[in-house]
Amino acid sequence: MTVIPRFAASAAAEDIAQALQTVGCVIIENLAPVELVDQILAEMAPYIDATPYGSEDFTGRTTKRTGALLARSRASVDLVAHPLILDITQKILGPHADTFQLHLTQIINIGPGGQAQGLHRDQWCFNMFPFPADMDVEVSTIWALDNFTEENGATRVIPNSLNDPPTAIEDNHRTVGATMPKGSVVIYTGRTIHGGGANQSTQIRRGLNVDYILGWLRQEENQYLSCPPEIARTLPEHVQKLAGYSLGSYALGYQDDIRDPFAVLNGYEAGSSFGGLDTAIPIVNK
């Protein structure tokens, strides 16, 4: 059986990206401190408690999916914008766009008795559009907020499934569990066939799902509602841009009179032209 390549937190982004492009999935062990994971869980606890269970099998009838992490958990920023993850993502998505952006954030809690999720590809969210076979448009991550085991529903992936036909979603016998200790992360691309595992334990299995996409694609989670301007302004500038408060490609996402949304968000008045912020002028006495 093919295994998922595993790396230490000190591994080079180049090596991890190469394995990701080849096999379609990797695990980086112990990348996040356990204390940070616990802080995220504490900040998100009231929101998780208020989240309803899924209404159908794919989202999980014993599963809660709680989003808007940037607005609800300041500690989550360290994982959403982890430098190593962003470096790897840039190497995978960079050849196809000037920028990439946050696609979604959600804590996935699979309760005891939860059934295995149907296998799928994440990029099928784009209306099943047939992207070129060798083109990556999405990078997905699931951080283990608990130890991920075969028993409690570790995410299952099919290594080397990047260019398999869609019928390969029936190949459950080829799946490998992304077992890993708390604070580790499994990374896979939008072309990799995968699905949540069945939770046969007596405990909830908690994972943080953060995905990234090309800057010219629509985000799955509407970040402008999940993380509105009054909250986005309190985040580091590179996180604001990652969330989508920036131009995608040449002209995507501008505001009103062709203003750069990053300039508008931060109180700068940009000239009426596309491009970067090199001509942005601070607003004074306005």
From TrEMBL:
GO molecular function: metal ion binding; oxidoreductase activity
InterPro entries per record: Phytyl_CoA_dOase-like (IPR008775)
Listed name of the protein: Unannotated protein
Lineage: unclassified sequences, metagenomes, ecological metagenomes
